[in-house]
Amino acid sequence: MKHVPIKLGPLALLLTVISICMTTLGILAFATARADWNLAQKYADTVQTRYTLEARGQGFLRDAAKACQEGKTLQELADTRTEEDGIFYKTLEEGEFRLKIGIVSENGSFRVVSWRIQREWEPEGGLDLWMSD
Amino acid sequence: MIEGSGRTGGGKSGHPGTAFYIEALLLAGVFTIVVLILTRVFVMSGQMGKDAALLTNAVHLAENGAEAVASSRSLEEVRRLLEENGNGEILESSKAEAAGEAYEGASGENRARILRVHYDEELNPDAEGGIWMDIQWIEPDSGEEGLVKSIINIYRTDRPDPVYTLETEVFISEKGGQL
Fold first, then answer.
1. Which one of A32, B9, B79, B135 has the minimum C-beta count within 10 Å?
2. This model's pTM is above 0.90
3. What is the pLDDT of residues A22-39, one digit of tens each?
């Protein structure tokens, strides 16, 4: 019976290629999962900040109601700005978010006419786009 | 030359030699280690992906709860907004305390009550679901104007700590409804 000699060279090469492919897949899987986790964390933090701001805004409404009950005017509320249309604006900031509340005086009380949550955003500058000659 | 020590064995005989065995063993060992490490990496990645999906779902639920709180005047109204197929229950203080719930901010008896709403893994309303949202409704001390604090916790059966916690407040005017 004839024995066929086994050579390890090609086998080693095959296992190396398999290892490299699997390592690449592993790195990609890990990077994707990590990116997902970071995105979920960012979303969670954003919602947290938004509702913290919301709570502060509700606190401002309580202060406004208290002021009205005590017979004070809305102008006396701290850090408010009155615009030409007679709306009193209060701006609250939390992280990158800003809440702008607008209230108007009405029959010894007040009414909310604006409640806007905005986020500071600046377009990325310095983009080197290819321009044809 | 040592006989039988070649990589392919002992010359014409075709029998593998010592060097061959050592090399094969090393190759198998290294490959096994690589496979084990990669298996661990894949398992970790899978778990991290699941955690990310769970956190995202928990945040969605908490947002829904916070919006329901923002548009309600009482915990019963929040329950009416969120309950489907009997998946909601209000825990009275004694029951909640027995369950070991936190009563942050509660100053008096029955000042804080909890609405518990159950969901399944797909976040469909399910009275027996393994994911639930606890909404604490903490009324202000007497004398203070109605600024109700609400702490929303999302839990899952296999985790002792909340997956996500969201705090919010809502001003309820005595002159009727929120402003």
1. A32
2. no
3. 999 999 999 999 999 999
